Amino acid sequence: MGKGFFITLEGCEGSGKSTQLKMLEEYLKKSGKSFIFTREPGGTPIAEEIRKIILDGKNVEMEDETEALLYASARAQHIKEKIIPSKNQGKIVICDRYIDSSFAYQAYARGLGMEFIKGINVYAVQNCMPDLTLFFDISPEEAFKRKGGADKDDRLEQSGLEFHKRVYLGYKKLAEEYSDRIAVIDARQSADKVFESVIEILRKREII
Ligand code: TYD
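^ thats the input. predicted complex w/ thymidine-5'-diphosphate below
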């Protein structure tokens, strides 16, 4: 049985994360490695239900604290039901967003602060931090331009450019603070070039 790894992908909306996830899935399928792809908020039936509440465009009255606690609740379910068991089976677990999203979006951008977000997430993560986090580094201005504007149905994307700029600054601070864990990838490059960087990082860490 191989050694399990827990890898998370982070970045602002439109950072090209989804494209990289698809490319990585194709690559890992061919490599014969044992892996799973999952996402936050979500990843299990209960956590996906919580996701619907958080991302529902109707829920404009949701308090920032409520939102942060819901992300943490979804995470608590996800980590216990799926991430830890899969990692213990020796799988490479690849998760689209995780706790750094709560740090960047809730602690920094919403202004709830790191102490509060770390505090509630102690109960959620059960000491299970990622072995590696890939941060796709592109500013929201550039990402929005590339994506062609915001998606009307998504409450979070309506929060505007200023919010996303704060998210981005949050990520930059996290990347500095947790430089051992967070690998910064220049996401302004072509998808193929970005993917080359992803593979290089995974090889260096002897994950693939
Ligand atoms: P999603 O549509 O999956 O966005 P993306 O394709 O950009 O990953 O929606 C997830 C949204 O949830 C995204 O706007 C980031 C936000 N989020 C938080 O604010 N905090 C969190 O802890 C997590 C996991 C996600």
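The mean pLDDT is 94.
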